[in-house]
Predict the structure.
Amino acid sequence: MARCPISKKSGSALVTWLRGLDAAELERVLTARPDAGTAPEPRSVGELADRLQRPASVALALPRLTLPCLQVAEAVAALTTVSRVGLADLLGATHGDRAHGLAAALEVLADRALVWSDGKGLLHMAAPLRNAWGSPLGLDAPLVRLLAGSNSDELGRMLAKIGVKPVANRKAERLTALVGHHSDPARVAALVAKAPAAARKLLERWAHEAPERSGFIMFGTPQADSSPGEQWAVERGLLIRERHRYGPVRMPAEVAISLRGSDWHAPFTPVPPGVRSVPATVAGVEQEAAAASMAFAAHAASVLGVCAAAPPARLKAGGIGARELARIGKAAQCDDLLVRLVLEAAGAAGLLARDGDRVAATASYDTWAEQEPADQLAALLLAWWELPLTPGGSRDEDGKALPALAGAPPCGGCVQARHGLLTAASQLPAGEGATNSADLGALLVWLRPLADELPQDSTPFATLIREAELLGALALGAVSPIGTALLADDAEALTDACRRLLPAASGTARFGSDLTAVVAGTPSAHLLALLDSVADRETAGAASVWRFSPGSVRRALDAGLTPDALTADLGAVAVEPLPQPLSYLIHDAARGHGRVRVAAAACVIHGEEPALLAELAAHRKLSQLGLRQVAPTVLISRTSPEKTLAAMRAAGYAPVAEKPDGSVRIERAQRPRAASPVPPPRPSHRGSRPQRTNDRTADVRTAVDLHALAIRLHGAPQDVPEPDPYDGHPYASDAEEIIAGYARNLSFTDVRQLAHAVNDGQAVTIEYVATSGNTTVRTLNRLELDAPYLHAWCHLRNDERVFTLSRIHGVMPS
């Protein structure tokens, strides 16, 4: 949809129609367009119409429309005035299923106050909706708009040329007569049949080509005289030339429709595509969903564990690049789609955040890591459900790899695609699932035609469908209990479903004589930390496997564990007694551990065995350290202690580091944590004026009783004048009066909306025109009025900004 202002005054047609609705019908409108009823509640039907006519509000309603609703709206947009009967003829929906489909689509559009019928059978459309299509149905503007600048004499000459006796010398009547003639396919066909061959060919071509409005010449030299065929059409109003002969001629929409013939109809698809299905029992769906969600929960713990231990680097352009994604995937045993899905969901859930040139875990991650797998999964599912992007989008239209967590612009179509997918699957008969996921994609295209598809998908929404299957929201082509809870937007039901499908975290492991440890299900945080410290993970998922080696055991000993403590810790989580090979490995590693110590002096190596020190000094792999024996039990090195330790361990030795006091230095992994991504509090610097405390809970929008609001609006007086900021009319609050005095580009409805955001500390979206003339849309919160300025935290700039009230041209609830 083309960018247009956030707010615009409503027309009288919508006000008149709204006043004719009863309370139940008003409630349906408010339910379908919830942003129009948010606090502060509209006081009159006129103010409600103002809100419903906001282009930004209309834009919120469009992505939820099905394909036939959009097709009907496009057909209405193609003509300025159309009756319901004329619309049915245009769509070829005069009887049968197509007629029922048209009636259903018009009912949906009316419930959303987008298209409605007046008492005379004419259809009206919300003004901003016309901007959704540049050339609806491939048509140009209708005659009424193209001839708006013509005079009565010009219209009279056109009527004379087509053989219609000119009516009274009034422009409106002559224009009506011309429109009536050109809207009749039979009369237009008869007229064109008499045209020269060149004119017939020209008109036929123009009737089936979309207007090239980008080619209009707004300034410069007028175009040369037209061809004889074109001139013939212009004289009869079949083509319209701009009064000053700038730009190409234009064909009115009525003429194009008439020339396309009575057999041509506008696209209309009232029946959704079929979805082939197979039996899918409730038990089978739950079992499949449980397996998928259990595997995802384990993979999520692995991916985030890798990021917490070694925060991935950010690209200079932002986001985590392909190299870091591959590193995380290799360490966590996950493919690229899983890694991206976990990272984006975790970022939205506040578990990961930017920390300088890296992306690190936050303090919230530590709390999340201690939770049960079901609660961990529920947190990620809630974040995924409202993600303003499709995490699996790894390639752009040119096939170039896309980074993860890049902070891409919000994609409302992606959210609608996710919601529409589960809606599509939920429409299947009970006990059945889609045979082919591609059928669900085709149905989703019908349900949410404005939803954004990924260029990388070979079939519609293939990546999105795969995401839903990995999370357990879809299973066997049907909606799982997890998906049902998501559709209901019920966080408590979602947590219950996850707890029912996922077992509790496993606190035990089975140790094999092949030096492996196997954990069924998702390991608990304690078990995960223990096994990761002493073994290397080989696989993760529904079952995870770790393998012990001398190097992994030495890593645990380096962290300060003794062999006895390590054996006791592993024995405490073992289902059966530890196998002898594992015990031997631990004690063998412990015997060699610490036989050599490295001290910082740049550095000094000493030990109790002269033969071992002599062996180190003569070792070829350690020659780069520059070792020199200064005593039977002392070596010195030209290399730093860290590099010396690493080289000696790589050569198969097990040295330990010493502190300056001679005690062993315990090597523990650092746990970097990023700060929570919350805007810093604004300091008080406005003089002695009292400051309003705006905490984050203030951003929660006050719930509105739509039923009570509909009853109040239905019973409100029909004529409620809006206060005039210049006549001293009293306002409901000081903020309203101040804003109205300075923000003269705002309607009274917008003034109330902005004043409410200031008074109640709620977020708001504004359209702002900068001094440069550029227009941007900003989401603000923690507003403070300091007329003629507004101080607020700007989410677009991620910083506090000052806005001039007179430059605010529109307001919407955020």
In short: Residues 1-10, 213-225, 678-702, 723-729 have pLDDT under 50 and may be disordered. The chain is about 45% helix and 10% strand. The radius of gyration is 36 Å. The first strand starts at residue 82 and ends at 83.
